[in-house]
Amino acid sequence: MTALITGASSGIGLELARVFAAHGTSVILVARQEAKLRALAAELQQSAVRTDVIVADLAAPDGPASVVAAVQSLGLEVDILVNNAGFGSYGPFLEMPLETALSMIQVNITAVTELTRRFLPAMVARRGGRIMIVASTAAFFPGPLMAVYYATKGYLLSFSEAIANELQGTGVTVTALCPGATQSGFAAAANQENSRLIAGRKLPTSREVAEEAYAGLFAGKTVVITGVSNKLSVLVPRLLPRRLVARIVRAAQERKI
């Protein structure tokens, strides 16, 4: 069995690679940072599983196709596709460079959609496969100060639930992973570390999220929301007016003084 994991060089993706390898699953590691991938591959090979590295930039329009071509050149079949790569950017939409917004849509939405569409037919033909799409608890909310990021995660959740329904009876399952804030390096990359949502909080580790994600994937769950507090928080939009929900998220996102 082989799992392809995008964004495998750090955070949740890295820990998912470790969890899969610990369970005897071969892994294909995909990310931009070759040195980090090579180091991780050397580590995982000690678990006696096959580990391959594909260096690719999913922000490039031809990134997903290059990943598929590389898998084919390796002569491998992907049994488990983990669409983990993604990024966010903190601040008002008006102040975000257009290139950043479009790149985020390319990585978080377009690349996920394309990779899923490209690998799915072979899974259905084999009548077996698993797809994990890493969304977020952000998928349930409007996200002032991270408007594009929250919107992309909303797409991923909706997309996952829809195709999970379409694929019933095919032997292929789709799982949307919805973690909350995590010790993953994401907040630092997004310049979000000083927001009230992050600062001063004890956050779950990427390994804890990865282990819960792995269990949910193999249980065939359509949506995995990690952590009790996160399971409760996503109920808020069902109970309150959307305009008020946006205000609450804005308050949580604002920086501590």
Describe this structure in words.
This protein has 257 residues and is an alpha/beta fold. The protein has a single domain (2-253), classed as Rossmann fold (3-Layer(aba) Sandwich), CATH 3.40.50. It is built from 10 helices and 7 strands. It has helices at 11-22, 34-44, 63-74, 98-126, 147-166, 186-189, 206-218, 228-233, 236-239, 242-253, and strands at 2-6, 26-31, 51-55, 80-83, 129-134, 172-178, 223-225. Strands 3-2-1-4-5-6-7 form a 7-stranded parallel β-sheet, with helices on both faces. β1 (2-6), α1 (11-22) and β2 (26-31) form a beta-alpha-beta unit. α1 (11-22) crosses α7 (206-218), α3 runs parallel beside α4 and α4 (98-126) packs parallel to α5. It is globular.
Break the fold down into its secondary structure elements and pairings.
Layout: E1 2-6, H1 11-22, E2 26-31, H2 34-44, E3 51-55, H3 63-74, E4 80-83, H4 98-126, E5 129-134, H5 147-166, E6 172-178, H6 186-189, H7 206-218, E7 223-225, H8 228-233, H9 236-239, H10 242-253
Parallel strand pairs: 1-2, 1-4, 2-3, 4-5, 5-6, 6-7
Helix pairs in contact: 1-7, 3-4, 4-5
